[in-house]
Amino acid sequence: MGMLKHLAIAALLVTASSGCIVRATRTAPPPRHTAPAARPMTYNEAVNRARDYASSRGYRVVAIEDAHLTGNDVWKVRVEVERPGVRGKIHLDYNAWSRALIRADEKVKADYRDRAPGKGNGHYHGATAVTDRD
């Protein structure tokens, strides 16, 4: 029985010594890709995005009424817009970091300076036209 015990210990030593060689190697770290630093949207970027939005809807920006960054990282931009026969305001909210449009509220109505009296009271909200007639 002593021989069997010695044989088992020898087999264990041979197996352990052949598979337990650990070699520590130090490799160079992967190359660093320097991505541009994440930064919030600037005032000019928020205003330009509002201009682009208005233009894409067929409006011309008459004035930037307000543009400010809130405490919860939202740019709120309010622009006065017009297109032939229509005038009003667009309120836009953008996420300052992702630059995603969060909210767009178009409050436009018929521009009565271009209309003859008695032609109705057409006004528009968003892309839906609403006409009030007597």
Describe the structure.
The chain has 134 residues and is α+β, with helices and mostly antiparallel strands. The protein has a domain at 43-132: Nuclear Transport Factor 2, Chain: A. Helix content is 24%, strand content 37%. It has helices at 2-19, 43-56; strands spanning 60-69, 74-83, 86-95, 101-110, 121-125, 128-132. A six-stranded antiparallel sheet has the order 1-2-3-4-5-6, with helices on one face. A hairpin with a 4-residue loop joins β1 and β2. The longest helix is centred in the first third of the chain and has 18 residues, at 2-19. It is rod-shaped. The N and C termini lie far apart (114 Å). The model is unreliable at 127-134 (pLDDT under 50).
Side by side, the strands of the main sheet go 1-2-3-4-5-6
Largest sheet: 6 strands, antiparallel
Assign the CATH architecture of the domain at 43-132.
Answer: Roll
Write down the overall geometry: rod-shaped
What's the SSE pattern? HHEEEEEE
Uncertain stretches: 127-134
CATH class of the domain at 43-132: Alpha Beta
Q: Count the DSSP helices.
A: 2
CATH topology of the domain at 43-132: Nuclear Transport Factor 2, Chain: A
Count of extended strands: 6
What gap, in angstroms, lies between the N and C termini?
A: 114 Å
Radius of gyration: 35 Å
Q: Output the structural class.
A: alpha+beta
Mean pLDDT: 78
- Amount of beta strand: 35-45%
DSSP helix fraction: 10-25%
